[in-house]
C-alpha cells in the first residue's frame, strides 16, 4: 500500500485537538507540560466544555498556559490559584473551573491556599505538576525535591537534616474530608498518558456532578533542570521519583 | 490477518526533536533527521515507513502535539 493512500483525511486516528491553539509552546523539548496541556484540551473537547470552562493559570513555567488552550482564563498571583478558583466557582457555579499548578506554585508559596480550598470542599479540579524542581527560575530546590537529588541551590544533593524533607502534598490533601478524588499519575509512556487522560476526565465529571475537590497530581520531568535528555529524564523519573511518589489513586469516594 | 498500515505526518517546524516519540514507537519507525528545522532542532521523521502500524503512541506522547497519525484498513489480497 502506498503511503499516499494511507495519508487521507478519513484515515486520521490521531491529530491535534482544536481546543489547543496553533501557538508553538515555549517549553523545552520533551517537557511534560506539553503533554498535560494536550490532555486537558482533549478532555475539554470530548466533554464539549470549551464554552463552559474557566482555567486558572499559575506562576511558573506554565504561566503562559492561557495562550495554549482556547478557553476562558484567569491568571492568578503566585500560589493563589485555588483561592481564585473558589471565587470563580462560587460566583458562576455553572462553569467548570480548574487550576493548573506546578510544585513551586502549589506546594511552596500556595500551600495554604491549596490545603484550605481542598478542606472547604470547593467544587473545583486541581491539576498539580510535580517535577521536584523550580524549572522556570533555574532549577532551584523545591519542597518536592527528593533526598540526594541535585539542584542549583543544593549542588551536592538535598540533605534532609539541613534542607528539610520532601513534601508529599497529595497525601496531605487526601486526608482532608473535602476532597473526593485524589490521584497521582505520570506521562512517561503512551499507556501512562492514556491513563492520565482518563483520570482527568473523571475529575471533570466529578465537578459536573458537584462532588467536591478533585486533585490530580502528575509526576513530571524537567529535563533542563535535571540536566538530562528528555528520554533519560523519563527513565530517571521511573527509577527515582516513582518509589517516593508512587502512582495510583490515593482516595476515590 | 494482514497488519494495519499506518503513517505519520510530523509538523516539522513545530517539532523540537525531544525524541520521546522515538522511544515510544513499538515498531522502530521514527528517528530524528540528520537535517534541522528553522529552529535548529533535528526533527522526527519516518525512517522505516513500512513498519508503521498506526498505533498513535508517538502522537499521544508528543509534548508539542506535532504528529498526526493515519491508519488504513489492510487490503485483503
TrEMBL record, chain A:
Sorted alphabetically, the Gene Ontology BP terms of this entry are: cellular respiration; small molecule metabolic process
Q: Which UniProt keywords are listed?
A: Oxidoreductase
**InterPro entries, per this entry?**
2-oxoacid:Fd_oxidoreductase, THDP-binding, TPP_enzyme_TPP-bd
Q: Where is the Thiamine pyrophosphate enzyme TPP-binding domain?
A: 68-218
Superkingdom of this entry's organism? Bacteria
- From the UniProt record, which GO molecular function terms apply? oxidoreductase activity, acting on the aldehyde or oxo group of donors, iron-sulfur protein as acceptor; thiamine pyrophosphate binding
Name by which UniProt lists this protein = Thiamine pyrophosphate-dependent enzyme
Source organism per entry reads Plebeiibacterium sediminum
TrEMBL record, chain B:
Please give the superkingdom of this protein's source: Bacteria
Say yes or no: keyword Protease present.
Answer: no
Pfam families assigned to the protein according to its UniProt record, in alphabetical order: Fer4_7
Domain named 4Fe-4S ferredoxin-type: residues: 6-35, 43-72
Ordered alphabetically, the record's keywords are: 4Fe-4S, Iron, Iron-sulfur, Metal-binding
Q: GO molecular function: any one? A: metal ion binding
Tell me which InterPro entries the record gives. Answer: 4Fe4S_Fe-S-bd, 4Fe4S_Fe_S_CS, Fe-S_Ferredoxin
Keyword presence, Ligase = no
Protein name as annotated: 4Fe-4S dicluster domain-containing protein
- In the record, what lineage is assigned to the organism producing the protein? Bacteria, Pseudomonadati, Bacteroidota, Bacteroidia, Marinilabiliales
Amino acid at each position: 500500500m502506498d503511503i499516499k493512500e494511507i495519508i487521507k483525511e478519513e484515515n486520521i486516528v490521531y491529530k491535534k485537538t482544536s481546543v489547543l491553539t496553533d501557538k508553538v509552546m515555549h517549553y523545552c523539548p520533551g517537557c511534560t507540560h506539553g503533554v498535560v496541556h494536550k490532555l486537558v484540551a482533549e478532555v475539554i473537547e470530548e466533554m464539549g466544555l470549551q464554552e463552559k470552562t474557566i482555567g486558572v493559570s499559575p506562576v511558573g513555567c506554565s504561566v503562559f498556559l492561557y495562550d495554549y488552550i482556547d478557553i476562558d482564563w484567569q491568571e492568578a498571583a503566585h500560589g493563589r490559584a485555588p483561592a481564585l478558583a473558589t471565587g470563580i466557582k462560587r460566583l458562576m457555579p455553572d462553569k467548570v473551573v480548574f487550576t493548573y499548578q506546578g510544585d513551586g506554585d502549589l506546594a511552596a508559596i500556595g500551600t495554604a491556599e491549596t490545603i484550605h480550598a481542598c478542606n472547604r470542599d470547593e467544587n473545583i479540579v486541581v491539576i498539580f505538576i510535580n517535577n521536584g524542581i523550580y524549572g522556570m527560575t533555574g532549577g532551584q530546590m523545591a519542597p518536592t525535591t527528593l533526598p540526594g537529588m541535585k539542584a542549583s541551590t543544593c549542588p551536592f544533593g538535598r540533605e534532609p537534616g539541613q534542607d528539610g524533607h520532601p513534601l508529599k502534598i497529595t497525601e496531605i490533601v487526601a486526608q482532608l474530608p473535602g476532597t473526593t478524588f485524589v490521584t497521582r499519575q505520570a506521562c512517561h509512556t503512551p499507556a501512562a498518558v492514556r491513563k492520565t487522560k482518563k483520570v482527568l476526565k473523571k475529575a471533570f465529571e466529578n465537578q459536573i456532578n458537584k462532588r467536591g475537590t478533585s486533585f490530580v497530581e502528575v509526576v513530571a520531568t524537567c529535563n533542563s533542570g535535571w540536566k538530562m535528555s528528555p528520554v533519560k529524564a523519563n527513565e530517571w523519573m521511573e527509577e527515582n521519583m516513582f518509589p517516593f511518589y508512587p502512582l495510583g489513586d490515593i482516595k476515590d469516594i | 490477518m494482514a497488519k494495519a498500515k499506518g503513517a505519520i505526518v510530523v509538523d516539522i517546524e513545530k517539532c523540537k526533536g525531544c525524541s520521546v516519540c522515538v522511544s515510544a514507537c513499538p515498531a522502530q519507525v521514527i528517528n530524528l533527521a540528520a537535517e534541522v528545522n528553522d529552529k535548529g532542532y533535528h526533527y522526527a521523521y519516518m525512517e522505516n515507513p513500512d513498519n508503521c502500524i498506526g498505533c498513535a503512541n508517538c502522537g499521544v506522547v508528543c509534548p508539542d502535539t506535532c504528529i498526526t497519525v493515519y491508519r488504513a484498513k489492510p487490503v485483503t489480497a
